[in-house]
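Researcher: Here's a chain I'd like modeled. Treat it as a single chain, no partners, no ligands.
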Amino acid sequence: MNTARIGILALMFATNVMPQGNAANPASEPDTSPHKAQFIGVEEDVKLEVLDWGGFGRPLVLLTGLGDTAHIYDKFAPKLTPTYHVLGVTRRGYGRSSAPRSGYGAARLGDDVLAVVDALKLDRPVLVGHSRAGEELSSVGSRYPERVSGLIYLDAGYAYAFYDPSQGDLNIDLADLQKKLARLEPGKLPRDPTDLVRDLLSSSLPTFRTRSARDAEESHGSAAVIR
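Model: Modeled as a single isolated chain. Structure tokens:
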């Protein structure tokens, strides 16, 4: 894709027409945006609301921040249709999309986006994500770079978007550790917990302890420098 055009698009997002408003359209504000809505199955019993504003050119898929739905782009998306075929996806757990009990990790959320791309037969779209959508952007871009033409991060470059397993991130590591420990609770224990227990004892717990100590030492050092 023309990199200059991508740069112009990113600048336009950042300076002039960033989406505003609440995640869902209030009843007092009827949805008059010129889109078509459909529901795409991405997993068994899981469907996502997908909005299609039409347009011409390469597909451009808008992904939302935490708590928002694709309707956050209702006023903004039509501005892009002269140049792009514009779509928006409501993440699982929000709006009219399915809200399963699981499937909120980066890999699964990225797979949801790709499932929509496959279902609609979109050819190497540009993915545009705001805030928490950096997680989906990096999930897709790091695992399947050949499936997209570009990634645009809109205030979306946080630790969860650029997670480096070799360095880790304490908040992400803690969330992963908590999920694994939760599987040891009564009623959730796997039939054969050997692999889970081995992973906890040999990897997850020691790694988290090491990174916690490292972060504490770095914070202490920073405080000493400030003083």
